[in-house]
């Protein structure tokens, strides 16, 4: 996915030179600043991940900073979206990378259960304990063992909008979901559909559901449903679907109506709001919407493209749903020492600040300097993520087996697309979700 904007790293580069290997940040094998030593000279580290384009380029800058400090050479291998299959093939072929950037909690658990992962070192673990909210360590832990360092996060509780469109309709960003529905109707009455919905990409529909469910049902039920300890036929699920259905069924609320939404992919949904000929006033998705609005449509973030937090539902707290990429070390990698040193480095705020300065990145590390972010909007979103602390919940579909939560044309993605097509029967949709979840979790 495309991400946020770039800028020159003027402020943080000098600090970076002084502090990349500071032992207070969990430097581990990374040489301390000023030592002049590159204790990993000659080492090679292979890092695999899904990133391509701008994301890969910006992560490469983080890896280059590590290389500059330690002398280790780092190769990046792009896996494409099917990380599990690619990494499995490389392990079987005796060509496993040392480190993998894993984009889903479910995949991290799968790797751990297959015995592919090496527990992370004590210094990395201590840094995470000290500088991250406990929820991030929990999501990187499987059966009591810490395997995954969440280096990059996403904030998936942001509603992006055109200020001009809301101004013309005479509405302000809502604080509650009820206000959102009311404002959406007012926008539609002004002649512009309220929302662009990327129904062709089923993952966006899971994010709609998750934000409503987390706020309406609360974090305990969210956790239980994510682990399938609560059935999808539970009344709380039916209630959340009913709430979502009010938006989907609203008159003139969706660009192109429900059929149009079902044929709209995610990048196009952003264009429907921020393109030259707007078709909607708002689009819900993560912080990365800003990147597309800026890079593809020339919008100035914070002025003609901005956001408000996903509003609280039925008296609950405003949700903060996140996603993220966890760094893990493979047992079959060839250079464990250098891999663990890279982990120590990625746990530091200095590593996060390299990418934060470039845009399209959020760090869950509380010690990351907010001034490293390239603009006020990115800074506000990053601070919101950190301030949410342990109330953050990881994308529910990313925690599920892929057959249920992460496969096009199957499971939750397909069932919620069917619900968008016809939101008249939330109970029937809940039953379909439960049947699919039960099957997928049984096989997992």
TrEMBL record:
InterPro entries: Bact_solute-bd_prot1, SBP
Gene3D superfamilies in UniProt: Periplasmic binding protein-like II (3.40.190.10)
Signal peptide: 1-24
Keywords: Signal, Transport
Record-stated family: Belongs to the bacterial solute-binding protein 1 family.
PANTHER family xref list: ARABINOSE-BINDING PROTEIN-RELATED (PTHR43649), OSMOPROTECTIVE COMPOUNDS-BINDING PROTEIN GGTB (PTHR43649:SF29)
Protein name: Sugar ABC transporter substrate-binding protein
Protein's organism: Streptomyces agglomeratus
């Amino acid at each position: 996915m495309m991400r946020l904007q770039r800028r020159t790293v003027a402020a943080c580069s000098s600090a970076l030179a002084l502090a990349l290997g500071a032992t207070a940040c969990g430097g581990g094998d990374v040489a301390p600043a000023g030592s002049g030593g590159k204790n990993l000279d000659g080492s090679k580290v292979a890092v695999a991940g899904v990133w391509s384009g701008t994301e890969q380029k910006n992560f490469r800058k983080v890896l280059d900073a590590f290389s500059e400090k330690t002398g280790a050479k780092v190769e990046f291998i792009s896996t494409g979206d099917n990380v599990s299959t690619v990494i499995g093939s490389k392990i079987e072929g005796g060509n496993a990378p040392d480190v993998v950037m894993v984009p889903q909690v479910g995949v991290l658990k799968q790797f751990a259960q297959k015995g592919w992962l090496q527990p992370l070192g004590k210094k990395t673990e201590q840094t995470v304990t000290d500088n991250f909210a406990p929820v991030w360590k929990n999501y990187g832990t499987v059966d009591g063992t810490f395997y995954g360092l969440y280096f990059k996060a996403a904030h998936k509780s942001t509603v992006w909008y055109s200020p001009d469109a809301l101004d013309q309709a005479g509405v302000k960003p809502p604080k509650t979901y009820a206000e959102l529905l009311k404002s959406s109707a007012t926008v539609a009455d002004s002649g512009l559909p309220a929302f662009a919905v990327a129904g062709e990409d089923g993952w966006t529909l899971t994010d709609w559901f998750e934000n409503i469910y987390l706020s309406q049902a609360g974090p305990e039920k969210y956790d239980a449903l994510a682990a399938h300890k609560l059935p999808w036929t539970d009344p709380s699920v039916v209630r959340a679907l009913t709430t979502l259905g009010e938006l989907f069924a609203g008159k003139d609320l969706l660009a192109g109506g429900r059929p149009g939404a079902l044929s709209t992919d995610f990048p196009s949904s952003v264009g429907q709001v921020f393109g030259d000929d707007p078709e909607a006033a708002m689009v819900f998705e993560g912080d990365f919407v800003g990147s597309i609005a800026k890079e593809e449509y020339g919008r100035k973030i914070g002025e003609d493209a901005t956001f408000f937090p996903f509003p609280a539902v039925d008296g609950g707290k405003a949700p903060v749903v996140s996603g993220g990429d966890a760094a893990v070390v493979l047992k079959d990698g060839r250079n464990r020492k250098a891999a663990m040193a890279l982990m120590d480095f990625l746990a530091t705020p200095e590593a996060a600040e390299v990418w934060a300065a470039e845009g399209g990145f959020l760090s869950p590390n509380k010690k990351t300097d907010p001034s490293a972010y390239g603009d006020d909007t990115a800074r506000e979103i990053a601070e919101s993520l950190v301030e949410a602390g342990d109330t953050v919940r990881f994308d529910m579909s990313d925690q599920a087996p892929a057959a249920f939560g992460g496969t096009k044309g199957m499971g939750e993605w397909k069932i919620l697309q069917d619900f968008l097509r016809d939101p008249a029967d939330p109970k029937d949709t809940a039953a379909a979700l439960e049947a699919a979840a039960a099957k997928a979790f049984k096989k997992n």
